[in-house]
Structure formats: C-alpha cells, structure tokens
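Please, structure for the following, as tokens.
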Amino acid sequence: MRFTKLHGIGNDYVYVDCIRYPPPRHPAELSVKVSDRHIGIGSDGLILICPSERADVRMRMFNADGSESEMCGNGIRCVAKLAFDHGLTKNNPMKVETGRGVLTLHLDVNAGKVERVTVDMGEPILEADKIPTTLPGPRVVNVSLEKGPDTFFEGLDPRMTCVSMGNPHVVMYCEDVSKVPLERVGPVWENAPVFPRRINVHFVQVRSPREVTMRTWERGSGITLACGTGACAVAVAGVLTGRTGRDLLAHLPGGDLHLRWDEKDNHVYMTGPAVEVFSGEWPDA
C-alpha cells in the first residue's frame, strides 16, 4: 500500500490515495497499526482520500485507536494539499466531502505547491442534544462542573462550554495551560458519561481578546500537538463566554492557527499550513 505522511502544525496522519489505488480492506485495524510510533509509521491516525459524487474528493478519517471520526480540521488541509500537489484535482477552491458535509477550501499555492489552506468549517452546532451531551440545554455555555479529584486542578475555571464542529468538543479555561495535568484529566473528560459519543477536550489560556494558548486531549488519539476543529470550537466558545472576539490567533503546541467566526454567515473559517513529510509503502493493507 502506497502512503504519504503529512501534518498540519504537528497533527500528523498517514494518507492513502484511494482514487488511483485500491482502498485498504480493514481501515480501522490499519489505523491502529500505522499510528503506532514505535512499530508503525507513527501518526495520530489514518486518512483515506476517496472518490466523491458530491465534491472533488471525499475524506474518511480514523483515529489512532481505530475509531472513525466525522471531521479533522488539520487533516482536511492536508487532504487538499495532497489532492492538489499530486494531481487528484487542480480545483481551487476545492470541495471536500466529510462526515460534516461538503466543505470549501481555498488554497494558497506557491510554485505549484499548496502551503496554506483556509477552510470554511461551516456553522458551529450549539444545541446540547446535537453535540451530543446529556447536560441540560438548549446550550452548554459556562456550565459549572463538579470538582472531582480526577477532573479538577489548581487554576482551572470550574465552568465548561460545549461546541460541535461536526465532531464534539468541550472547552475549559485555566490560568496556565502548561500546568494542566492532561494525561490525568483528558481521558476522564473524554469518557465522561454526559458525552455519549465521547468528546475532544481543550484547555485554554486567554492571552488577550484576540489571542489564546490551548492544549488538547483528542477523542481516540490522546494528547496531540494540534486540533483544528478544536481550535474552531475554542474560537466559538470564546465569543459565547465573552472572553475573546470573533478573530482569534490560537497557539497550539505544534504551531498557530488563525480563526474567524463570521458574524454575517455564522461560519467559522480556519487558516493554517499543510506539510508533506514523506511517502512510502506499507507491506500489509
């Protein structure tokens, strides 16, 4: 199986061209194998680039634990780069079909190669039952959380906000993200009973109304260097809670993303880089 590894600010995936080559027989199992950073290729998961009847290409995304997710913000930028740079489509803007629906991407091309991508991520989903969470709605904004020994730590604001960008996110604020015991609190929140489909967990430190620093525990993958849909959720949560404005620079461990929640069309726009790392062959697919 031919593959290409790409990353968006450190959020790395193994990509397979399923348009020119046969798709893997068992993608969930394959994702677990290739994601292993010791005996595999090493990644946060597996992304298949497939034919689409509705868009230029279709994206299927599998987490490192084999679970299939609806959407990946950093991943979709890399889908656009691979599709454009490798000649699957030269359309710009490009349409990509995802579990969230068909999204539009505008490509920043230099010397025939995609360097940055702006993704129209669509409207945020704020209804509690659609996120989904069993917490009382209609919206979960600045809702107080229980100070349990596995969920609370010094410097954490005991309020949370939930947003879906096609996949579920919970956003919490703290004084210093570098001191968040992410290995301890991340899996507890991911698997909390109030989130029936599990959830992506983000801790945010506000630098100014236009700038934040964040760290993430991703559903199905654990600690990652970046989460694009999560950064979008953070931008929305900041506006809803009055902490930040509609234009936001988010610093993630792997790099920066620019976010804008447009007041006119209610869509969230995310801009960031996409980088190809290497290509190779996997012996068993």
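The chain has a mean pLDDT of 96. The first helix runs from residue 27 to 35.
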